[in-house]
Each structure stands twice: as C-alpha cells, then as structure tokens.
C-alpha cells in the first residue's frame, strides 16, 4: 500500500476578547469545523482570514499568529500542496522555538515531519518526528495519547522505509496507549488499527491486515462519515487487501468507494485521486482487462507527475504499473522502458536495498526471462532475492516468488537448478 492515514496533530482553539480578535476566533473555529469535515477549500479561506487579522492586530511574532500559520500549513498539506505547507510550518516554527510553549513546538515538528513523509524524504521526516517525540515524552509523559501520535508517525516512516518490525513496534506502543486513554471507538485508535493492518499487509499476513483494516473503517464511517478523506484511505486499504487475496469484485467495490469519497472531498487533481485511479487500474489488470487498466494508470501518472514530480516514489509506482501491463501485452521493449524509469527513481529515493527496489529488479528480470535473455534475467532476480531475504525474510511470498523465478531461469540456462521453496 502506497499511501496511508497520517495522524495530524491540531492546536487548541484561540480565544480572543477585542472585536477584531473575536472575529478572528470565529474564522478559526470555522476553519476547524470545515477541516474536520474534509472541506479544505473552505477551511483554508477561514484560516487565511484569521491569519490576516492576527498579523495585523498582534504582529508576526505572536503565538496566536504562529497558530494561524500552523493551521494554514495543515490545510495545504491535506490538499497535497507540500511546499506551501512547509512554508507556513517553518514560519510557525520560528515563533514556537522562541516561546515557552514546548508542546506547540512538538506539534509543529510533528507536522513538518508529516510533510517530509509525504514528499518521500524519510530521513528528514524521522528527524522532525523524533524531535517532537523527545519533547512530548518529557512534557506529557510516555503514556499520553498525544505522545502516541508521535509513535504512530515514526512507525509510518519506518513502514515506508521497509523496516516493518520497527514500524510494528511503534504502532503497538501507540495502540496500547490509545485503547487505555481513548477507547476502542475513538477515531485515533482506529487510525492506529489501520497502521497495524498496513504493516501486516507488507509482511504478507493478509488475513491479519484485513482484520485491522475492517476495525478501522467501522469507526471511521461512524465517527467521520463515508465521504471523509480518512474513510477513503481505509476503503483503499481494504480494496488493496482484497485485490491481493484475489477477491477482485470486493476490491473494485472498495476502490470505487475510495475514489468517490476523495473526488468529493479533494477535487480531481489531488495525489490521492491518482492513488485511487492507480488501484482501480491494478484490479482491472488482474482481471485481464488491460485496455481499462492502461487508461486508469495513465490518468494516475499524469496527476502524479504534475503534483509530486518526476522523482517521487509514487510516480515510480505508476511507471512500474504501466511496465507490468506492457509485459502482459508482450510489448517487452515498452515494458523495460517503464520498469527502468521506476528503478531509477526508487534507487535514488528509497535506496538500493529497499523492498520496492527489489520489486523493480524482479520485474525487469521477468521481462528478460520472457525475451529469453536468461543471463540478464538471472542478474536482476539475484539482486531482488538478496534484498528480499534481508528485508522480508525467506518465508515471505515475494521472496518465494523470486526463488521460483530463479529456478526457472537456471532450468532454462541448463545449469544448476536452484531449490524452489513451496508456499
């Protein structure tokens, strides 16, 4: 799964007493009401009006002004406008770091970390999340639900880096705190259930993944409604899990729900729309409806290149998926073109030994195998196996699949036949 629910911490409402500041407080309240409903354009308009009043009445160094900067950044982040989000978060950060409000500073660090996570800069994301965690553990304590948010966000970054055991450790810390302090029916507890499901999916434990995702969506639908972006994320995760388990009709049902919710909340050019289009393309590919699949993948790629840039991991995902379709269509030169674009981006952004990089090596190997270029096929599948055994373990389905392909390549070469591990 490529895109996940990220916990975004919020700041407490600002109360004012003069006429202009009373007006700003009303805009502030309206901004949060619309934000929590997923109405980001209306939320941004209200927060901007509040910001303008605070700057004029209190100056650009006041904490209330900093809060307004933080809120504007939060909306921009939710809209996928990450550079604008960082611009406002860093404005807020300059004020917070000079104040005595350490929890505000921690919240701002958390939010900056979330943006770097979405931009694919995982080391910077960890840097800011750990800075925020250090403050929260000291000021609030290790058992506080806000501290649990930091554990969740650190877990999300480790998941994206392919360090699944570390991710699960942080998520379980968060879940224990939230169940105790907030209860099972709280939205934030549901978010942690989603994140745990995410890790189990990546570890190949699909029944466990589905169990946690269904726990999550039940709470989201009840607390947030079916059109909220968080509910859409949950639909997406359930759809991906059903797709992997081979239940394609269920997968299409949940991905279509996700797309409908996202278009209503975010508009048609948001990166999350590309994700839903991509996921629908994947299901149609598995159903062998390749023309429909290419249609959805191309739409997703166009949005991602515009919104995220050429070098983003999700742009690589789109290239990878188009490569897979052209492999199925036996257009191998076109397939290699897209797969190599994906590999270049993944090596640059995720590193040589990331599981997603291994996927690109495996895909390229398969194309060479079908072209009967067996030495090249073996070279690439051995790279994939090396990464997968290290990161996923020998018993993971992806590792087994790689070993199976290597055995077929060796057989074709007429050399030693590598033992095939059975599922």
The best one-word shape is elongated
Uncertain stretches: 1-17, 416-423
Terminal residue distance:
22 Å
Could you give a short account of the major beta sheet?
none
- Secondary-structure arrangement, i.e. CATH architecture of the domain at 1-181: Alpha Horseshoe
According to CATH, the fold-level topology of the domain at 1-181 is Serine Threonine Protein Phosphatase 5, Tetratricopeptide repeat
Radius of gyration: 23 Å
The count of helical stretches stands at: 19
Structural write-up:
By secondary structure, the chain is mainly α. The chain has a domain of 181 residues: Tetratricopeptide repeat domain (Serine Threonine Protein Phosphatase 5, Tetratricopeptide repeat), CATH 1.25.40. It contains 19 helices and no strands. The two termini are 22 Å apart.
Top keywords for this entry?
423 residues, mainly alpha, Serine Threonine Protein Phosphatase 5, Tetratricopeptide repeat, 19 helices, disordered C terminus
Provide a brief overview of the structure.
By secondary structure, this protein is mainly α. 77% of the residues lie in helices and 0% in strands. It has helices at 19-36, 40-58, 63-78, 82-96, 102-119, 122-139, 145-160, 164-181, 187-202, 206-223, 229-244, 248-266, 271-286, 290-307, 313-328, 332-349, 355-370, 374-391, 397-413.
Furnish the topology, listing elements before pairings:
Blueprint: H1 19-36, H2 40-58, H3 63-78, H4 82-96, H5 102-119, H6 122-139, H7 145-160, H8 164-181, H9 187-202, H10 206-223, H11 229-244, H12 248-266, H13 271-286, H14 290-307, H15 313-328, H16 332-349, H17 355-370, H18 374-391, H19 397-413
């Amino acid at each position: 799964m490529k895109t996940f629910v990220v916990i975004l911490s919020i700041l407490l409402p600002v109360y004012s007493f003069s006429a202009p500041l009373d007006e700003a407080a009303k805009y502030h309240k309206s901004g949060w009401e619309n934000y929590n409903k997923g109405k980001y354009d209306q939320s941004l308009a209200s927060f901007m009006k509040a910001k303008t009043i605070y700057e004029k009445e209190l100056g650009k160094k006041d904490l209330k002004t900093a809060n307004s900067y933080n809120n504007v950044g939060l909306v921009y982040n939710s809209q996928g406008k990450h550079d604008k989000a960082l611009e406002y978060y860093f404005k807020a950060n300059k004020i917070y770091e000079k104040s005595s409000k350490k929890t505000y500073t921690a919240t701002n660090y958390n939010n900056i970390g979330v943006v770097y996570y979405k931009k694919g800069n995982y080391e910077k994301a960890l840097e800011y999340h750990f800075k925020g965690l250090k403050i929260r553990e000291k000021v609030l304590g290790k058992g506080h639900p806000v501290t649990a948010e930091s554990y969740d966000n650190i877990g999300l970054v480790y998941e994206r880096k392919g360090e699944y055991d570390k991710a699960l450790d942080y998520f379980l810390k968060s879940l224990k705190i939230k169940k105790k302090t907030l209860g099972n029916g709280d939205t934030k507890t549901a978010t942690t259930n989603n994140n745990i499901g995410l890790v189990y999916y990546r570890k190949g434990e699909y029944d466990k993944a589905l169990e946690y995702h269904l726990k999550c969506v039940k709470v989201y639908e009840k607390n947030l409604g079916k059109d909220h972006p968080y509910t859409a994320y949950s639909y997406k995760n359930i759809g991906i899990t059903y797709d992997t388990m081979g239940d394609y009709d269920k997968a299409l049902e949940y991905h279509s729900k996700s797309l409908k919710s996202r278009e209503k909340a975010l508009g048609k050019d948001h990166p999350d729309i590309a994700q839903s289009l991509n996921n629908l393309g994947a299901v149609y590919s598995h159903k062998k409806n390749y023309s429909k699949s290419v249609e959805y993948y191309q739409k997703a790629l166009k949005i991602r290149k515009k919104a995220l840039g050429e070098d983003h991991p999700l742009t690589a995902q789109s290239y990878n998926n188009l490569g897979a379709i052209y492999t199925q269509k036996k257009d191998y030169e076109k397939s290699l073109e897209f797969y190599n674009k994906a590999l270049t981006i993944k090596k640059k952004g995720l590193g040589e030994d990331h599981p997603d990089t291994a996927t690109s090596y495996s895909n390229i190997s398969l194309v060479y195998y079908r072209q009967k270029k067996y030495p090249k096929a073996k070279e690439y599948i051995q790279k994939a196996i090396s990464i997968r055994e290290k990161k996923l373990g020998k018993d993971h389905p992806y590792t087994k699949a790689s070993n199976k392909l290597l055995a077929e390549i060796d057989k074709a070469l007429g050399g030693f036949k590598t033992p095939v591990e059975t599922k």
